[in-house]
Amino acid sequence: AARDYRRATQLEPGQSALFGLLAEALAGAGEMDDAIEAAEKALAMARARGDDFLAAQYMDQVRQYRDKTYP
Questions:
Q1: 15-58 pLDDT, tens per residue?
Q2: How far apart are the C-alpha atoms of 49 and 52, rounded to whole Å?
Q3: Would you state the torsion angle of the CA atoms of residues 66, 42, 45, 64, taken in this order, to the nearest 10 degrees?
Q4: Residue 25 near residue 2, CB atoms below 8 Å
Q5: Which of 1, 6, 42, 57 is the most exposed place for a label (fewest CB within 10 A)?
Q6: How many angstroms separate the CA atoms of 34 and 22, rounded?
């Protein structure tokens, strides 16, 4: 799945949701450093759009990956 989401982010680099999904796929594969990087990109995009709700979700995602509390 991560490979597909990586490709999708290359095709649609402005879609924060794709980076969020990529982060989930990477975390599920145990690639936490890459998961954090993808989630941080999603967070930055949400903040740039002024989407506080989505930014909060991505911030939680980043926090879980950093704290290694991802399910």
A1: 999 999 999 999 999 999 999 999 999 999 999 999 999 999 99
A2: 9
A3: -30
A4: yes
A5: 1
A6: 9
Letter string b/e over residues 14-49, b meaning 16 or more CB atoms within 10 A of that residue's CB? eebebbbbbbbbbbeeebbebbbbbbbbbbebbeee
Tokens for 28? 């599920």
Q: What's the distance, CA 22 to chain centroid?
A: 6
In whole angstroms, what is the distance from residue 41 CA to residue 2 CA? Answer: 15
Quote the pLDDT of residue 22.
98
* Whole-Å CA distances, 69 to 5, 52, 62, 64: 22, 23, 10, 5
The pLDDT value recorded for residue 52 is: 97
